[in-house]
Fold:
Amino acid sequence: MPKEDLVNLALRRSLFYSAAEIYAGSPSGFWEFGPVGEKIRRKIIDLWRKELVEREGFLEIFGAQILPEAVFKASGHLASFADPIVQCKKCNATHRADQLIAEKTNGIVPESMSTEELAKLIKQHDVQCPKCKGKDFTEVRKFNMMMKVDIGATGQQPCYLRPETCQSIFLDFPRLFKTMRVQLPLGIAQSGSSFRNEIAPRNTLLRAREFGQMEIEVFFNPKKINEVPRFSEVENYKLNLQTLKDKSPRAMNCKEAVEKKIISAKLIAYYLARAQQCWHAFGIPIEKMRFRQLADDEKAFYSRESWDFEVETELGWVELIACNYRTDYDLAGHAKESKQDLKVKEEGCEEAFIPHVFELSAGIDRTLFVALSLALKTEKRGPEERTFMELPPRIAPYLVGVFPLMKKDGMLEKAQEIEEELVSYGLDVFFDEVGSIGKRYARVDEVGVPFAVTVDYDTMKDGTVTLRERDSMEQKRVKAAELPLLLWKLQNNKIKFKDI
Amino acid sequence: MPKEDLVNLALRRSLFYSAAEIYAGSPSGFWEFGPVGEKIRRKIIDLWRKELVEREGFLEIFGAQILPEAVFKASGHLASFADPIVQCKKCNATHRADQLIAEKTNGIVPESMSTEELAKLIKQHDVQCPKCKGKDFTEVRKFNMMMKVDIGATGQQPCYLRPETCQSIFLDFPRLFKTMRVQLPLGIAQSGSSFRNEIAPRNTLLRAREFGQMEIEVFFNPKKINEVPRFSEVENYKLNLQTLKDKSPRAMNCKEAVEKKIISAKLIAYYLARAQQCWHAFGIPIEKMRFRQLADDEKAFYSRESWDFEVETELGWVELIACNYRTDYDLAGHAKESKQDLKVKEEGCEEAFIPHVFELSAGIDRTLFVALSLALKTEKRGPEERTFMELPPRIAPYLVGVFPLMKKDGMLEKAQEIEEELVSYGLDVFFDEVGSIGKRYARVDEVGVPFAVTVDYDTMKDGTVTLRERDSMEQKRVKAAELPLLLWKLQNNKIKFKDI
Structure:
């Protein structure tokens, strides 16, 4: 499904759209999610929470988005969270130097390249300004992407909007480890917004200045990186791995990947497997996924081992999760800067140590965008074309539409009664009584609602309703009273529609 | 329950705590919510969404937190969203001038008071610096509370963190009205964070610099402010109203309040009633609530009629919801500044008009704080004291604890099976197998979990479990297989524990 079709649908149905769009010249890279988009976005976070956070026994926090300068001094962001930029001397437009070169050469420009090397490449490849075609640029300089906010009446307390949600996790770890009756390995998760002053926001939700993250930091004893009790659950599960030596991904089970030292330890393989399973639950086909190993000049300097979880789309491979073995970099940095002892002791061990961290840092809006673009389908049915979104029930904006066939003869009231009953059991219902049934089906199909219940004359006689499935468009007759449990089972894939 | 007890519990169980607390000198007014606090906070938003947003057929959006300068020029924030401040000449501490006077005189200082009048009162009442007791202050000046963020490499796009979530609602209204098949009255809701550079953050969650809001803006045709089809549902519902003439609140039903012109219109009375019902569902007793009418010098200049929904706590009356009849102030302002026509037409009407707006602007963290402080109870039981949190099931962090009596003889596995079953039906479960059953009960009681299921030897024989209620500590024997529906009914108050 071409990206344009998704963007058109997004605008037509207000799934997402630019912030402050009524104002000409509003800065790009800020997005609003309309009612249906907001619901899908929330469901994505809920599924991640259920599958990757709660099922693993991890803790979740909700932290401040503004944090003091000291935090980012310790994290290294103040010193090194910067993009190389150049300005066109003719039209004054600012560009990312590495992107200009990458676009001109169709190649990858390593993050570690110096400003001098970049300047040389710009000259060498005869790079033009994309805006005015000028070839005269200023020097390449580093531009810090942090957004500064001054707190206090005299701005005496310099703070920053977080560029990633995980710093709160590192800051809160010592307290949570002490107060929450937990042991290592301990995962702490947070979902929320992060902020980066991107020079060139683009591809709608894929590179924004304010964007959603779902991050998990797993704290563990580095000596026990191969002690993973539940590893047996994933040892035969196949990951799509693309190492530095590979040209394309190949499927390999976790056990083999660890034994062959393609993945350095069981703990890392275990969480890569859980991540792949979770993103598969978002409806992303396994064959479109890969974990791409990052080379030293591509990965963050503090990371001992990095895998980017990427999904193939018509825009190329899109990174959805950064998986980094961050070692003790973060806690050691905060310990030094805050002058606090952040070492912990494990039960039965004498020695205190700073835990190591393995991270799964995922993008919410990127996941949303990729999941929608892979789910959007058009299908010829005779002379007509049908558009529908093949979203898994758990991330659909509503689980079920409830439609009275007509507003008369008690059908409206009966349908409302069913709606209320389903809502009281925590199910998400979209009620619609306007237009023909066919049009109502088409409207919910387009935004991915997997099931629809129609209340008709038979309902008034025998208490049964029509239950329709979005993908097959098949219909079954079921008892209204059985809907709550039946729909929960359909949502959780405990029963298939064809087996009803 | 004294505030100190709640704060102690919050720190001991990590419900909430200061952001970046490992760093000395981190700015105040920024908070983190730990695992249990985050869950309660999320449940509060969910309940508001179900009861006030979805039940009313309103739309919800998720908008950008950073918006361009033009938005806040139009909204009036740049010109007037300011607090009066003074600096002590001796110790350089900055204070809010109106607060210094209010504390000294035990009175209320109107928001409309000029800086000159405030300076005069400071002199007149011989106000001292709370920090150093100095009496020599700088001039009173207005300090804008907006937090500025520069976007773009050369900071060429001045933006601000939103000081309230509702501006996105006004900006998105024209698009949603066009694309969402809706009619007036149309409510649009948003929950999320807002940011105000408060000079004196205090009372923990009650006045923070980054804080959560749940806002609803109802757009309507001002000619139809008394056409409210569902008014009959609330006409006999009693509101606790305290008008400008009253010294204390008095209960009056919606019908009477409108007929006596105490509330100016049915639409306003209707939503005040819905708000009171929703906050009652948070567990706040009706007798501790009031809607206090604001005088002209206390309410925002754009508001035609303002009621503050307040709750009585040991810290005094705390405002939880600002209810404002904002007229067409916001849409007219954005229409002028953006040069867009934001008028709408209603079906069957010729004339285009700018809708009026009635707003329910609620604080998430304030609601959380007040709900917890009213719910926290201690009870003498013989020689022992028991602490428990009487939270309604719908905002409890978990609905149910699941405890195997022992880890042996299959009880652990059986309990895990029950946990998984309940989770698959969308219920929130806390699993605990550590320590005595009594201690496990005490731990969940303290954070408000309303029910607990214990798996014991009888479970292994006949499939029944013990179901215990937090408040009464009574226990019933129920079939494990019936738990999912039973717990949903208990959560939604469709059945009472004593009637099982």
Q: What stands out?
A: Chain A has three domains: 3-71+155-373, 82-144, 398-499. Chain A touches chain B through 84 residues (CB under 8 Å).
